[in-house]
Specification:
4 copies of one chain form a homotetramer. With 201 residues, chain A is mainly alpha-helical. Chain A is 80% helix and 2% strand. In chain A, strands 1-2 form a two-stranded antiparallel ribbon. The longest helix of chain A has 28 residues. Chains in contact: A-B, C-D. Chain B binds a DNA duplex (21 and 21 nucleotides) through helix 1 and helix 3.
DNA sequence: TATGAATGAGCCTTCATTCAT
DNA sequence: AATGAATGAAGGCTCATTCAT
């Protein structure tokens, strides 16, 4: 009983979280109400507040979940076998694909970037996530390039930031004024060129 | 008489607009209320609605104003005398400076990018502005590089998009997780390197 | 000058009054705003308040004007030559016609009936108008019937009230749930029958 | 539990409805605010919106309730034992009594008549109610008179309309310019005379 | 664990009215 | 005589949150 109700509660909580991601992506972070989220989760408003004390707390958990989903997909692509360059290439492709397709998690994180300006807790969490991801990219990605003899022109940490910022910038621009199919084809080629320009031979 | 009244009204309207930019930048697009804006403008709520029928209409005018301010500063930097490369370099520096310093207009436009997802009118206006600015950059900036014998590896239109997206991406990341002084020093060098990588010799 | 500007002012005032009748009839007494009325009169809101200190005062003048128009039409029909019965018949027809066609003045007065419950000044004015009109009907209409040898079963004052109340009741019901053409044909025949029933031979 | 909550809600909803009838009758349909109604119901404004999505929806429910109360009282009087003529007489008396005493429901319905001109939903509902009530009167009232050998001079449906219109007209006139006690005494006698004039022997 | 009832603060908007010109 | 700018109160409504059950 303790066990099963724990499980049930845990499942409900996740159900709310999943509904929140979908709803926040669809309606916008500030437009979506607790009621909307509850409706998507097929629950009552009260239930949402049972699982998350605050809208604030809900936001924080949603951010965490979204970031993890995005990061996981990126690193999963990297983890597939292949040469270092191939793997990096594949990871970038995956990171771009999520943004190009505007998966809910990306939409939500984009909104958090902006919301974070008014919300120190979100900003803190987001900054922490960003730092960690950049470090990850440096540690397990860029370091391979160096092992291959490439010499970065800029600090690797900044290179990671630039990569992510460019992806997010393209993501946001794409959501407002979509890339044409031709432009889409150019994205990856260009990102590769940029990477090579930064890690010059 | 009619004249001075008219002038007064025009000035008041601009006063509201300026107050709106400041307030929206400080409090956030969705958090700032008409009351806040009115207070910043030292006016009554009613006065704001006298000058702008809607919050919506106010938004559109604010967007217009912000975009114009930003664009004007960028092109003003380009218009100063110098070699083509110098002028482009200077324009990029200026575009970056506005973002690095988070001038109110940039903050507001960043928020509009996100709001535009829920707001077709804003999205339309924004997309139109973006297209026009890219075209401008191509026409009066990149075309000079071609005259100098440089050969773009990607379509110039996409190159312009990439430039702006990267700047906006850096802007947003910077607002969440500020660049270190060292990183700030690397921004321009890197943007130059990227430009050269795209317009290869 | 004094003369011509006086005339001008007088004309403007009447212009506002006419616009008010039309607008109040079309939009409803409580929905129509001063702005609406001013727009219909092709004037500024300020002008309306220049001519009428209050919305209240405007209402009172509008009521007066509407009542006069309606009363005048009724008595004009009565004043045409003919036998006493003919003239009464014609007056009733005219009173009904205005209501059936929902001329603006009737619509407005109908609304004043209801508004008067919350508004003593309007109620007083309206009651006074009603009394006077009933007395008029008795004096110049019903008295002829008595001269003809008809004997009223009820007080003539009440008979006048009943006539007007029935007309107004039909008017209001008609505005909600319109009479069919067949019913329209029955109205006058029935009103005649009622009159005869009251003034029995 | 669920049960008692549900019951509580149902009771609260009715409490709001009752408060609305009283408040709308006292303050007028367009003057009474949601706040007023909430105060009368000893509830918060939010509670009113919890039970009724709209002021509009509240209006519709109020109209329904008022009409039902009025209709029920009329037909209850008719349902008491007695001869057909007695029962009709009694019903008319009751219908008049409610109007003479200006019970809240009558006041509110009178206001709805006027509001319905600007409000299609209300007009539709009201027209439907009116038609049904007329039909009722014809079916269970007037048809008895015919069985007694009376021959109507006008269509029975129109006779029903005339009866109700006359009552409502008297009601409205009475609310503006009250009947004298003598006049009050004449109302029923006159209505009877009219009925006989219409259903002649 | 979960719900539904209820609250109260705050928001955008409308509008009659005032006033300088 | 007339206007346009500006005000401030009030209104309907939304929403996160609380709480008894």
């Amino acid at each position: 009983m303790g066990r099963s109700s724990y499980r049930k509660s845990e499942a409900s909580r996740q159900q709310v979280l999943d509904a929140a991601v979908v709803t926040l992506a669809a309606r916008g972070l500030t437009e979506a109400s607790v009621k909307d989220i509850a409706a998507t989760a097929h629950m009552s408003k009260g239930a949402v507040h049972y699982h998350f004390e605050n809208k604030e707390e809900l936001y924080e958990r949603v951010l965490e979940q979204c970031w993890n989903v995005i990061e996981k997909r990126g690193f999963a692509a990297f983890d597939e076998p292949g040469s270092a360059l191939d793997r990096i290439h594949r990871a970038i492709l995956e990171m771009w694909a999520m943004r190009r397709d505007a998966v809910p998690e990306v939409r939500v994180v984009d909104e958090f970037y902006v919301m974070s300006r008014q919300n120190p807790a979100i900003r803190g969490a987001l900054a922490e996530h960003m730092r960690r991801t950049r470090q990850h990219i440096v540690n397990i990605g860029f370091s391979r390039l160096i092992e291959l003899g490439l010499k970065p022109k800029v600090s690797m940490h900044f290179a990671a930031r630039l990569l992510l910022a460019t992806l997010d910038g393209l993501s946001i621009h794409h959501s407002v004024d979509p890339l044409t199919p031709e432009e889409e084809g150019e994205v990856l080629r260009t990102l590769d060129a940029i990477l090579l320009a930064i890690f010059e031979i």
